[in-house]
Fold this protein.
Amino acid sequence: GTTMSAAALLALRRVRERAGILTFKTFFANTVLDVMLSRGWEPVSDDSWDLFWCDVGWMKDGLENVAVPETSRVCHFPNFWELCRKDMVAKNLKRFRRDIEKAEQLARDAAALAGSHADCEAAQAAAAQALADLPRGCTPGAIGCRTDFMPQSYKLPGEYRLFVEEFKRRPGSAWIMKPVGSSQGKGIFLITKLSQVVDWKRDNRFDPGVAEEDKAAEYIVQEYIFNPYLVAGKKFDMRIYALVLSFQPLRVWLYREGFARFTFVPYSMDDLSNTAVHLTNVAIQKKSAEYDQSKGCKWLISRMCRYLECAHGPARVRQMLSDMDNVILTSITAVQRVMVHDRRCFELYGFDILLDANLKPWLIEVNASPSLTADTASDYQLKFAMLNDMFNVVDLERRRRGDEQRVGGFDLIWNEGYVTREDPFSQASTVLPNSCLGGYSGDREDQLDEMWHAALA
């Protein structure tokens, strides 16, 4: 049960801690449960857990109503929606872009006045302050501070008039409508005519007088990326895993592996009503007549990178991966100042990124609860290893030294600034990004063994 007093829960925790027993609580019966059991952790049904793998619904009120020690961990931040609701990530990125543009403009103004104007000192002070107001480690134009990856976005019905103005400026463009809080492709449709939105907007459930529970879902409308990169004529997007241990200071880890999700139906702009052509969600693709359960519809990110290297060369792919780092890091730094920081919280984010025909990455959405249910044996293997290494980074067992830049398949890519490492193959003092998305991870077990031994030394 969950009716034990705070004192009784604390006493129970202390007994288990002395016995070296770690406990967890979860309502999920998927890969994450298998991983926690494989680590020897014991499941509990009360609130004496060391780790709670909860759903996002519990986070809205649950953390405030449970006495959680500083040593325990919860798998979401209190206001997770700032990054994971489609309308909120768009709003936060727009605000961040304005902050960056302000800093850049003030820097240009200061440079123009340098040495030749009485107001030079004041202009320089204003420019310095604007830079200081950006998250630590952010430099305009650098990785973690470029916001050109979010399709033009408007929240409906609130920004309907702004959307109409933009729509009229872009004749022939296609737009995609998405409910702000749904997942798995539910409620999504494409439009090319304003009349399609007008019919939707006439829904009387948008009237202010309608009861909250009866209101229609709010939507975000985004410019549709009509020229996606295709493999054998099929569209795909990529699921990338990023782990945030802390927002103050900001520390971000990136998993080396991920997967590309393909459609089973060849891509075409001729039929905008067929979601199986335009949406890569597995829940959508399973409904397609072409879907093959035994094969699934995924490639590993490492395989995708090798394919792209053969087609475009290593240099183009390195630039693409750097741009993907920027998508992830800028999205996270954009919400750093508004996130409620809690030392007991961490978050595994699933970033969905689309490549266009020029290998430019576009942010589709960020998931606070990326699916951990496996579709195939290889999918299970990927997610099991990723979650196991995630728990190695979170380090409930307190085995790490704390200064590591790699833990198994995870690499530290932001530690109050973009993390770099020395190039082992360069004669000069060349540095490389510590990010290794799509890179080699066959030495994972050896790296973990070396890390644990170093921590004991």
User: Anything to note?
Assistant: The chain has a mean pLDDT of 87.
